[in-house]
């Protein structure tokens, strides 16, 4: 299947930008990812991302680096940072933009080194896919951390996307699945990705998962729209 995300990044990098990435989700929502946004500067980033980059320290792994905007900012600040992505075109774009250290891999297949900071921005924890995979995902992150390391991740509580009743409660389908689990497809210039699972975590669900997988979970800041930045550290 086409790597539509990588294709869009490569086109933009090569001056061939004519359209954005369309996304279709199981929430019956059609949306767009503006490609220029993936090349944003620090000043154009939301406060949550800026805060995460300010907290990053030591040896950093930027997981799901995309066009490398976060990793490049840290590299320019003098940090030892590696951009990891499972898209060949995304990694090619990172290199072209000046990233010195890159890894082409799915995060779950990568175990080469240990880091002081793992970055999972733009809802990077979504890579876990489903709630049932979250423990395995967190345990893998733990295996990549130095003992005093940190995971900086942002996510959103998508409860606001469901119908609200008069007393302020939400109508969430009771089909046994966690409401933050979404299936996406992407489309770019007529090419479609295969469907993939993605998860948005509310802070309490994240805290519970951290608790049972050896992590402390600290809420760093909340954003303007049900989103937040969390810092995970290993329990001593």
TrEMBL record:
Looking up InterPro entries in the UniProt record yields: SAM-dependent_MTases_sf
GO terms for MF:
methyltransferase activity
Query: Does the record carry Nucleotidyltransferase as a key word?
Result: no
Q: Where, by residue number, does the polypeptide cross the bilayer?
A: none
**Family matches, as CDD domains:** AdoMet_MTases
Per the record, the GO terms for biological process are: methylation
Tell me which UniProt keywords the record has, alphabetically.
Answer: Methyltransferase, Transferase
Q: Which protein is depicted?
A: Class I SAM-dependent methyltransferase
């Amino acid at each position: 299947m086409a790597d539509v995300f990588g294709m869009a990044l490569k086109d933009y990098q090569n001056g061939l930008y004519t359209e954005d990435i369309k996304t279709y989700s199981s929430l019956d929502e059609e949306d767009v990812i503006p490609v220029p946004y993936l090349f944003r500067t620090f000043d154009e980033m939301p406060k949550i991302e800026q805060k995460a980059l300010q907290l990053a320290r030591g040896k950093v792994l930027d997981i799901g680096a995309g066009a490398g905007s976060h990793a490049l900012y840290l590299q320019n600040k003098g940090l030892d940072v590696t951009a990891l992505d499972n898209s060949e075109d995304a990694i090619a774009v990172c290199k072209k933009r000046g990233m010195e250290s890159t890894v082409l891999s799915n995060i779950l297949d990568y175990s080469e080194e240990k880091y002081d900071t793992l970055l999972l921005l733009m809802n990077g924890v979504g890579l876990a896919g489903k709630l049932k995979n979250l423990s395995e995902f967190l345990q893998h992150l733990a295996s990549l951390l130095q003992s005093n390391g940190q995971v900086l991740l942002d996510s959103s509580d998508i409860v606001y996307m469901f119908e609200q009743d008069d007393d302020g409660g939400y109508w969430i389908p009771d089909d046994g699945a966690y409401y933050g689990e979404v299936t996406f497809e992407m489309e770019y210039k007529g090419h479609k990705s295969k469907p993939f699972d993605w998860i948005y975590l509310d802070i309490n669900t994240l805290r519970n998962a951290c608790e049972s997988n050896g992590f402390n979970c600290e809420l760093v800041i909340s954003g303007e729209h049900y989103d937040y930045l969390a810092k995970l550290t290993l329990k001593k």
